[in-house]
Specification:
Chain C: Keywords: Cell membrane, Membrane, Transmembrane, Transmembrane helix. The complex is a heterotetramer of chains A (352), B (523), C (322) and D (290). Chain A has 352 residues and is mainly α. In chain A, 75% of the residues lie in helices and 4% in strands. In chain C, the strands form two sheets. Chain C has a two-stranded antiparallel sheet with strand order 1-4. Chain C contains 14 helices and four strands. Classes of the chains: A mainly alpha (352), B alpha/beta (523), C mainly alpha (322), D alpha/beta (290). Bound molecules: adenosine-5'-triphosphate (ATP) (2 copies) and magnesium ion (2 copies). One magnesium ion binds next to α11 of chain B.
Chain lengths: 352, 523, 322, 290
């Protein structure tokens, strides 16, 4: 009884987790060795590690996206911001002898600037978020290409190499970075009233304004944060291939990020967001991608498989499905002791 | 007296009363019959084995405290919520509406609680939605406009049906909703708190309309918290308490005090309005000062001072500018001339947060759009204003939140299974209480209330007025806009009368009376 | 006085006229009617897609699958015509039915499983593109005489321009869209749903049925757009129309429709699509922008027009208030 | 003569594409032509719009780098009606050759075949190959694969064991190569990598190095395009061969337009296939192209 209650209360949390476990198990049964993890050169090695490693850029972007979606916004420009910050990182590394941390700060600053731009369009000029960020989505790649002059700028830097592919305590450094960022965000959201304010603004701006929440500033900061997260992701992606690919870095990543936020149970109409579950959503998507790559499927099946599995996960997770299933079982139960029930109602209707 | 109450509370006796009423009615086949209806939400048994019958040409009051299950009954009846068990018969045949549209087609026309219209559509489009007349298979907007004007005339509204609905005030929207309900050929009309925020004139108009429909043989269910209205229009009364049907009574045979006891479950003798002293005893220290404050096409410039411990009422007809006055005073709409100061802080240009920090508070009129944050919990909704004034970096600890909220839930008798329930799932009146509580915990120096008791039951109404008075005795100033003159007269020290967006007069001390206000408005 | 609700659309019209005027002033070639008729023909498929998208957005939803649908329908049509030897009219019929059916299925998932439209249609976007790959990876020509014959349907205008079959088809579909939106009960239900879906349900709007119809209609329009695109290029290509969903959304929004739903007009979408086309044309006429400046210009002009439009609306409101 | 030429480019999706654009622009500038450039951002419809706009402007000639081979008949006919010669750049179209003046292009299939031939010679026709395909559905990917497959079909012991799309990008190449190495349990069962472009190969080389696999020693690397970075990789002993896709197509294209204006006959296909480069000349080539 008590256990049942627990399940009931945490349905929303359990559904994405369950989906993740299922996808991992199914992939493992199709691909031998998928679950194996070994120590190689003092760090962990295996497909599961690859998933974590590959998921970090998306996870960072999704983190920012979740906050923006919480304010009833959306940020389509993250892919372009990734390209811009990658380009800044590469060009500064190649063309200046500034210390790496200055370069990184510059790249992060550029990302926040991009976020500020989006934020101003949305909260000051009242342009609808999807269009406001669409502008930077289109123009941003142009900016990135301008910085790299349309070429892939290859660079070399030990620190950046380590960010892209180094290990610390057996785990990839970039995974640590992502964990740090996630932990920090969750902490700020939980331990201050910021999370409450963001959700309130997303759910009802008018009411939030009337209680004195400075909604404009809040929405603006959400986009700046998203820009920061995208910039981090951009640095990692550039460090990963030791080059800035202004044309392709982070292409369509915004869709994966939004997908992850929604898989976690958030609504694009604002309101409640779930940061940790968003990360689970990212892992679901990355597992799927990695599974398709290792499966040896012909390329033309990639998208159909991805779409089918995403749809399946969505359908399984839908609260409606759960309700129908539970209705089905209660009906069965009722049918079992229907005799008494029927007699009762029969009597009731005869009486008056 | 108290014996009677006790008797009425005895379950056996109640059902005896009920049966006699039913026996009297069973001569004719009831228009609507509800049998053993039950409905539960997670954690709440909203309706428990409710049965009732309504005849043709009967106006039935459906009464009960906030959260008693009135709205739920209506929604189950019209198929908005699926029922757990029970039967519904209309005209003797079993019906099971699958949604509101289906119910309409079956002949049940409903005005739900809160305004449920489409704010982004024009009045005409709202009125004719789903009933548009067509020529050659296409909607004819010419006919629609004619029809819309007819319907608006029925409820006595003379407004431009082509304008967008949300440019009109809540009261007008409410009337539009009623007009819409009349647009269908119905056997049953259900009105869930249609009179909240209406003025006496509109209410009279509505009652005339109900009387006419009654004579045409419609059955009407009417939900309200105003007992006067119950006694002036209804034939019979069904009382719900905690989801249970307490009984059905002939209006003429039930005294007010008995009715209240049935609703509340205990006798409340001190509900009668106590005589109110319209003068303040303490020394006058000014709180709010409006100096020639106005805004073009919004409100004519006016002066207004409120002192500590003073309650100033704002009266006026629908659309007279009461809400506008409140908004300018609070600062949610910035005036384009004049000065606003609160306890010597100039607020003319400052942010709302600053205003709240120096002691301003505002309960808006439109609870659904401006008040509640539906997805958030009762607790979060209640601490929102306090938290906002503190800033995001100094959070109120959960323990403290729980303490504050628990206290308010007790004090205002808010009916909720727990404080983490989303506020959107509370009954309308309870939502209103939460919004009020939101401001009470900020301990404001000056609280502005726009229609504060909208949709609140008599018990709570009484309680809230007590709280208001108490707070003022402790030195809080209060600006209350209300369409209920009786209420204003009960506690206001001073009443500002508005007309056509400017202040026409101010009644002081013993001048304050319903008649005086009405006279000022009429002049 | 101008009705406030028509203001955004009038502002869009004004922006379009100003732009066109600028083009005529700046470039000689722009003054020919050919430019205008090219705008109609070249943006036909985008506008058709955007009309379907307008209904979706008016209802408060979104449909990301339209671009992939265009590619899928084209490939399907090509397959039916060249591999089964079917007459193009039949192939078009089947393709439209398939488009409507897939749209309706997405609608069912959105309505009954209560999953957000963004995500369902995102999955649809992956799925349709994937299905296109499965039918045919390569680009294939559709050179059936019936299809090539359509190019000969042509109403010349004064100057070098003329209305092509494609432009006319678009205009017919536009008129149909306007009628559905403003003159049918379904259309009003769409507006109601977008304005406040909860209230709409209480007012008796059949919410689920309407949602399914909306996505089926969007499926119809994007399938139609797929057909038009196939006729336009005389070929089918599984990578066609990538990113068209975003262009369509932008066209709808530039046309004055609110993404939050409930407010907007189909005709505005037409103007929005034309404005997007004109941006492209102006950039080509200029011809001096390199690749990255092209991107910046597209984004910048988009922003400029949105701000201009907002400015006009703001200014008129202020004027009429004074 | 001072010509006005319209140039409809696909986009700027890769470094190679940008080089091509720059080369053509530089050539036009050198000759004093007025080049109207239009970037179609990977969209065929934009290219059609651009060609139509060029026609409306009455240019003297049009260069078209078609994003896809089909779907040009109509607009080419319009150009012909307006008597504007069209030169196709870097790939052909599936239209009647009479509709365009000429094409200045290499043959993707031939590039694939050349890569396969080199690999067959290098491994004596005995090799398990992993393939990094370009963007799914793109003609470069399809044709390079077709050309490659046609040649290895002659060698029973040459098989493609894994083939996935790396979308022509470095990041894609790296991620897919990582998964190949995981799925095959390291380099034991892989003898060579064939990448549809250099960028994917460069990404794959990074993946190999991180997995402790030595490119060229454990796995042979052959790719197409000849971008500068691949020469550096070859010089460092990390790649084996690349086939040049010539980006300098402006000169022959303009010459063709001039020739046609003079009423001379122009070949329908001006081949611009590049040679296969090997590590021996890599350092010098890198210095030249940097
Ligand atoms: N959608 C819902 N989900 C969960 N609980 C609900 C929902 N709607 C109503 N309830 C609960 O059912 C009970 C009855 O609510 P209902 O709205 O019927 O009250 P009411 O009698 O109309 O009150 P009021 O006078 O305040 O309008 C309340 O306890 C309320 O919290
Ligand atoms: N043209 C308009 N556009 C937007 N909002 C408007 C417009 N006209 C009125 N309102 C809003 O409608 C609300 C009610 O206005 P109204 O003049 O009816 O106030 P009232 O006297 O308080 O009437 P009520 O009895 O309804 O409270 C106010 O909040 C006002 O801001
Ligand atoms: Mg109620
Ligand atoms: Mg008011």
């Amino acid at each position: 009884m008590k256990k049942n209650n627990f399940l009931h209360k945490h349905q929303k949390t359990l559904a994405p987790l369950l989906s993740l476990v299922l996808i991992i198990l199914i992939t493992a049964s199709v691909t031998p060795g998928f679950l194996s993890i070994r120590m190689v050169d003092g760090h962990l090695f295996g497909s599961l590690l690859d998933i974590l490693h590959r998921a970090t850029p998306t996870a960072l972007v999704a983190l920012g996206m979740a906050v923006v979606i919480g304010t009833r916004g959306i940020d389509l420009s993250v892919g372009a911001v990734i390209a811009i910050s990658g380009a800044v990182t590469a060009v500064l590394t190649v063309n200046t002898d500034w210390p790496v941390w200055v370069v990184i700060l510059c790249a992060l600053g550029t990302g926040m600037l991009c976020g500020l731009w989006n934020g101003i369009l949305v909260s000051v000029f009242n342009i609808q978020p999807i269009v406001a960020t669409l502008i930077l989505m289109v123009a941003g790649r142009g900016i990135a290409q301008m910085i790299t002059e349309g070429q892939i700028v290859t660079f070399h830097s030990d620190v950046l190499d380590a960010i892209g592919n180094g290990y610390f305590l057996a785990f990839p450094i970039r995974v640590w970075i992502a964990i740090g960022m996630i932990a920090l965000t969750v902490l700020v959201m939980r331990k201050t009233a910021l999370g409450l304010f963001i959700e309130a603004v997303g759910a009802n701006v008018r009411a939030s304004r009337l209680v004195g929440i400075e909604a404009r500033l809040l929405v603006l900061s959400a986009y700046v944060f998203s820009g920061l997260c995208a910039a981090m992701s951009g640095i990692i992606l550039a460090a990963d291939i030791r080059g800035a690919d202004a044309n392709n870095a982070g292409l369509w990543l915004e869709l994966d990020a939004i997908l992850a936020v929604v898989l976690a149970g958030a609504s694009l109409a604002g309101g409640r967001i779930y940061l940790l579950l968003t990360i689970v959503g990212v892992l679901i998507i990355q597992t799927l991608t990695t599974a398709i790559l290792t499966s040896g499927l012909p390329v033309q099946y990639n998208l159909v498989v991805k779409a089918t599995i995403i749809l399946a996960v969505l359908l399984v997770q839908s609260p409606k499905t759960r309700q129908w299933i539970s209705d089905f079982f209660t009906k069965k139960k009722r049918a079992a002791n229907s005799s008494t029930g029927k007699a009762d109602t029969g009597k009731g209707s005869e009486k008056p | 007296m108290s014996d009677l109450v006790k008797d009425a509370l005895e379950v056996k006796e109640t059902s005896a009363v009920k049966e006699t009423v039913e026996a009297a009615q069973s001569a004719v086949r009831p228009l609507l019959e509800i049998k053993h209806l039950s409905k539960s939400f997670t954690g709440v048994q909203a309706l428990n084995d409710v049965s009732l019958q309504i005849q043709q040409g009967e106006i039935r009051a459906l009464l009960g405290e906030n959260g008693a299950g009135k709205s739920t009954l209506i929604k189950v009846l019209t198929g908005v919520y699926p029922r757990d068990s029970g039967e519904i018969l209309l005209d003797g045949s079993l019906i099971s509406a699958s949604d509101s549209g289906h119910a309409q087609r079956l002949g049940i026309s409903t005005v739900y609680q809160e305004v449920n219209l489409i704010p982004t559509m024009s009045v005409m489009e709202n009125l004719t939605l789903q009933h548009q007349e067509k020529t050659f298979g296409l909607i004819s907007w010419k006919k629609a406009e004619i029809r819309a004007r007819e319907l608006l005339a029925q409820v006595g509204l003379d407004i431009d049906p082509l304008r967008q609905l949300d440019t009109y005030s809540i009261a007008i929207q409410q009337l539009v909703a009623i007009a819409r309900a009349l647009s269908t050929q119905a056997k049953m009309l259900i009105l869930d708190e249609p009179t909240a925020s209406l003025d006496s004139d509109e209410i009279k108009q509505l009652f005339d309309l109900m009387a006419r429909l009654k004579s045409e043989g419609l059955g009407i269910i009417f939900v309200t918290h105003f007992l006067d209205q119950v006694y002036s229009i209804t034939d019979s009364i069904t009382v719900l308490r905690n989801g249970e049907c307490i009984g059905t009574f002939k209006t003429a045979e039930l005294s007010r005090s008995d009715l209240v006891s049935h609703m509340v479950g205990k006798s409340l003798e001190d509900l009668a309005p106590t005589a109110h002293d319209h003068s303040i005893k303490r020394e006058r220290t000014e709180l709010l000062q409006l100096n020639n404050v106005g805004k073009q096409r919004y409100l004519q410039p006016l002066d207004l001072n409120i002192a500590a411990g003073e309650i100033v009422g704002v009266a006026g007809l629908l659309g007279s500018g009461r809400t506008e006055l409140c908004e300018l005073a609070y600062g949610s709409v910035k005036p384009d001339q004049g000065e606003v100061t609160l306890s010597n802080h100039s607020l003319t240009k400052s942010s709302l947060r600053r205003a709240i920090q120096v002691g301003m508070g505002y309960c808006p009129e439109d609870r659904k759009q401006d008040g509640i944050v539906a997805e958030l919990s009762v607790r979060e909704n209640m601490i929102l204003a306090l938290q906002a004034s503190k800033g995001w970096w100094s959070p109120i600890s959960i323990a403290e939140q729980q303490k504050l909220v628990e206290e308010m839930i007790q004090r205002l008798a808010i009916k909720t299974p727990d404080m983490d329930k989303p506020i959107g799932e509370l009954s309308g009146g309870n939502q209103q209480k939460v919004i009020l509580a939101r401001w009470l915990i900020t301990h404001p120096a000056l609280l502005i209330l726009d229609e504060p008791t909208r949709g609140i039951d008599i018990g709570a109404h009484h309680e809230i007025i007590q709280i208001i008075k108490e707070l003022c005795e402790q030195g809080m100033g209060l600006l209350v806009a209300s369409s209920e003159l009786e209420e204003l007269v009960m506690f206001a020290h001073r009443v500002v009368v508005m007309k056509d967006h400017h202040k026409v007069s101010e009644l002081h001390g013993n001048e304050v009376s319903e008649q005086a206000i009405l006279r000022t408005i009429a002049s | 006085m101008i009705n406030e609700r028509n203001l955004p659309i009038l502002a869009t019209l004004l922006v379009f006229i100003m732009l066109y005027g600028f083009g005529m002033y700046e470039y000689k070639g722009f003054r020919d009617t050919l430019v205008f008729s090219n705008l109609l023909t070249d943006n036909a498929f985008l506008i058709i897609t955007a009309i379907g998208m307008t209904f979706v957005i008016l209802s408060g939803g979104i449909d990301l699958s339209v671009g992939s649908m265009i590619a899928f329908i084209g490939v399907l049509m090509a397959y039916l015509i060249s591999n089964t030897g079917m007459h193009p009219l039949f192939a078009i019929g089947i393709a439209l039915v398939v488009g409507v059916a897939f749209g309706a299925i997405m609608g069912v998932i959105i309505a009954f499983f209560e999953i957000q439209a963004f995500i369902v249609t995102l999955a649809g976007m992956f799925l349709f593109r994937g299905l296109a790959y499965l039918i045919n990876l390569d680009a294939v020509p559709i050179d059936h005489p019936f299809i090539t014959g359509l190019y000969d349907i042509y109403v010349p205008l004064p100057g070098r321009g003329g209305l092509t079959f494609i432009a006319m088809a678009m205009l017919v579909l536009l008129a149909l869209g306007i009628l559905i939106a403003r003159r049918t009960r379904f259309g009003m239900s769409v507006y109601a749903l977008g304005g406040d879906s909860h209230s709409a349900a209480l007012l008796g709007v059949p919410v689920k049925k309407t949602i399914i119809k909306i996505y089926a209609l969007s499926g119809f329009y994007s399938a139609m757009s797929g057909v038009i695109f196939a006729i336009y290029t005389g070929s089918a290509y599984p990578l066609a129309a990538v990113g068209v969903e975003l262009d369509a959304i932008a066209a709808v929004v530039i046309g004055g429709t609110l993404l939050t739903g409930g407010v907007g007009y189909v005709f505005g979408t037409f103007l929005g699509g034309m404005i997007q086309g004109i941006i492209q044309t102006l950039i080509t006429f200029d011809g001096s922008l390199n690749s990255w400046w092209t991107k910046l210009a597209v984004g910048g002009l988009l922003l400029f027009f949105i701000l201009l439009q907002k400015g006009i609306v703001y200014w008129v409101k202020k004027r009429s208030a004074a | 003569a001072d010509l006005t030429i319209g140039f409809s480019q696909i986009g700027s999706e890769s470094g190679w594409r940008t080089s091509e654009t720059q080369s053509i622009k530089a050539e036009a500038e050198r000759r004093g032509y007025d080049l109207k450039f239009s970037d179609a951002q990977q969209k065929q419809e934009n290219q059609i719009k651009a060609v139509r706009s060029f026609i409306a402007q009455g240019v003297d000639g049009i260069l078209l780098a078609p994003v896809v081979e089909t779907g040009w008949d109509q607009v080419l006919k319009e150009a012909q009606r307006a008597k504007i010669p069209v030169v196709l750049i870097d790939r052909g179209v599936a239209a009647d050759p009479s509709l365009y003046l000429t094409k200045v292009a290499s043959d993707f299939k031939e590039e694939g075949s050349l890569a396969a031939s080199w690999l067959a010679a290098k491994t004596n026709g005995r090799c398990n190959i992993v393939e990094l395909q370009g963007s799914v559905g793109s003609s470069a990917a399809i044709d390079r694969k077709t050309g490659f497959d046609a040649v290895i079909g002659n060698f029973p012991n040459m098989t493609i064991t894994r083939s996935q799309s790396g979308s022509f990008t470095r990041a894609g190449g790296k991620e897919v190569m990582e998964s190949f190495l995981k799925a095959e349990g390291g380099a034991k069962n892989i003898c060579a990598l064939f990448a549809h472009n250099d960028d994917m190969a460069l990404g794959a080389i990074l993946a190999m190095k991180e997995a402790g696999v030595k490119p060229t020693k454990d796995i042979l690397v052959v790719s197409i395009d000849a971008v500068p970075d691949i020469f550096k990789a070859m010089a460092d002993g990390e790649a084996n061969a690349t086939i040049e896709l010539n980006p300098h197509l402006g000169g022959p294209a303009f010459d063709a337009i001039l020739a046609s204006q003079d009423g001379k006959k122009v070949d329908k296909w001006i081949k611009a296939n590049g040679p296969l480069y090997l590590p021996d000349t890599a350092a010098a080539e890198y210095a030249k192209r940097k």
